[in-house]
Design a protein that fits this description.
By secondary structure, the chain is an alpha+beta fold. The chain has 8 helices and 15 strands. A hairpin with a 7-residue loop joins strand 3 and strand 4 (68-72). The relative contact order is 0.16.
Length: 267
């Protein structure tokens, strides 16, 4: 059977619980990684998602900010999180599950946005983002002989066609050279494959985020690809489909991000 893994910055899971339920019902991923859930563990709507078949859940929440969660139809093990930069934020969750008779590791990340000024000397938020990326270089595609997947809102659009205007966004946080170079180091040192760009060539524009400030986001289409799905090469070789669920940005009271779904052949 195919294995479907999805990632989505939901921007408050309690506010958008109905949207998560709609997505799970319509697209039926095996695992869904959520970022920016904005609630503590005991506030997470776990019961509602269990009713839809997602009995296995790992939640690493935080009051009012950040927070990540992984919902799964498959049993989860080795659940843990890492406190990147030792600031106490809930920005990472790691689980192990089985597919095709083998174990796989799944990292769920919410990288700091970095504030408005792309200068670590005067902007502590941007400095935090760069230090976070430096620590991410330790995450590898092959972790203790277990092939690994890394997904999440990485808050960086690394390629020219990951943004609506490469030239105009070169000095805008999320597409500055210092950030894209940092993310490239994480990618290359870890030995990752970019599943979105494996399916959608780099010369084509593709976005996963559109600002709330846009009067008509769909018409102006000033988006950025901030959400990513990376995998070990042996997992990437099994990729059969990759979907960016763009229409979710037009749902009622939407997140500014949309889900990304990777389908792998483990039949």
């Amino acid at each position: 059977m195919p294995l479907k893994i999805a990632t989505w910055n939901i921007n408050s899971v309690r506010l958008r619980q109905g949207q998560v339920e709609r997505f799970l019902t319509e697209h039926e991923p095996d695992l869904l990684c959520l970022q920016e859930i904005k609630c503590q563990n005991d506030q997470f709507p776990a019961k509602a998602f269990r009713k839809l078949g997602y009995e296995h859940q790992a939640v690493h929440g935080q009051k009012g900010y950040h927070g990540v969660a992984t919902l799964s139809r498959r049993p989860l093990s080795e659940i843990h999180s890492r406190d990147f930069c030792a600031v106490g934020d809930s920005r990472h969750l790691c689980v192990v599950f089985e597919a095709g008779g083998q174990l796989m590791r799944l990292h769920n990340f919410y990288v700091p946005a970095g504030g408005d000024e792309p200068d670590p000397a005067i902007n502590p938020k941007f400095d935090h983002k760069l230090r976070f990326l430096a620590e991410m270089e330790e995450i590898a595609a092959l972790d203790s002989n277990i092939p690994t997947i890394l997904v999440g809102d990485l808050n960086i659009a690394p390629l020219e066609n990951d943004v609506w205007s490469h030239k105009q966004l070169l000095r805008v946080v999320s597409h500055t050279p210092i950030e894209t170079e940092g993310l490239t180091r994480v990618y290359e040192k870890g030995g990752w494959s970019d599943l979105i760009r494996a399916k959608i060539p780099p010369h084509e524009k593709i976005f996963t985020w559109w600002s709330y400030r846009a009067r008509d986001w769909d018409v102006s289409d000033r988006g950025r690809r901030l959400d990513h799905v990376w995998a070990a090469p042996q997992i990437a070789d099994r990729l059969v489909d990759l979907q960016v669920i763009r229409e979710a940005r037009g749902w009622q009271q939407p997140s500014d991000h949309v889900p990304v779904v990777a389908t792998l052949d483990y039949s």
